[in-house]
Design brief:
- This protein is mainly alpha-helical.
- It has two domains: 58 residues, Arc Repressor Mutant, subunit A; 115 residues, Arc Repressor Mutant, subunit A, CATH 1.10.10.
- The strands form two sheets. It has a three-stranded antiparallel β-sheet.
- The radius of gyration is 18 Å and the shape is elongated.
- It starts with 12 loop residues before the first helix and ends in a 12-residue tail after the last helix.
């Protein structure tokens, strides 16, 4: 028995497809209209994208993306740098008593990034990452739906939960710190479907 998909119910199909195909995450917080359509017609979108060979993931915490297990060197590098950036942000905020699950409320400013770099200079200098590179990383994160720029800084978006979940999983394994850099999951974190923004 075949099922006919009524595309008239999916007025934002082209926009959503371009969004996901560019490697971007859709967040309920920043794209409420697109999210409402995706959520209402989730079954239709899943069916359509699956038939086209794409794996649409919709997380109940308010974000969605095209997932792929394919590995490209540039994707791995970008994802690894994001993992480092988010890990340092979480670690710094946790050390001041901030609740990690409220990370979307943190306002990350350029002066704050400068302080972060000063505190983590050994690690960041080893990766040849200065304050300008941290700024560039946050701008890339914003382009891909992990953050958004506002009020002279950035706020992290729920899609960062993909990294937070990964960090918590690593913490549960209680790996020695010296072994962390050799862990394949850390070198290639779960967001291996990140693509470089063409702009």
């Amino acid at each position: 028995m075949s099922t006919t998909l009524n595309l008239a119910h999916l007025p934002n199909l082209a926009e959503l497809f371009r969004h996901f195909l560019a490697g971007k995450h859709l967040n309920r917080q920043t794209e409420p209209a697109l999210w409402a359509e995706l959520e209402e017609y989730a079954e239709s979108y899943n069916s359509l994208f699956t038939s086209l060979g794409y794996d649409l993931r919709i997380d109940d915490r308010g974000f969605a993306w095209f997932h792929t297990s394919e590995s490209y060197s540039q994707i791995g590098k970008t994802s690894r740098l994001f993992a480092l950036l988010f890990m340092l942000i979480f670690d710094t905020q946790a050390s001041t008593g901030k609740t990690l699950l409220r990370f979307t409320e943190w306002h990350i400013t350029s002066p704050w990034l400068a302080e972060l770099h000063q505190k983590q200079s050994d690690l960041l200098d080893a990766e040849e990452i200065g304050v300008p590179e941290l700024t560039d990383l946050l701008n890339k994160a914003a382009n891909l739906g992990f953050a958004f720029a506002d009020n002279g800084g950035w706020y992290l978006l729920p899609a960062v939960c993909r990294y937070l979940d990964h960090f918590e999983s690593l913490a549960r394994t209680e790996m020695p710190e010296d072994d962390l850099a050799d862990d394949e999951a850390f070198v290639n974190p779960p967001a291996n479907d990140i693509v470089e923004d063409a702009s």
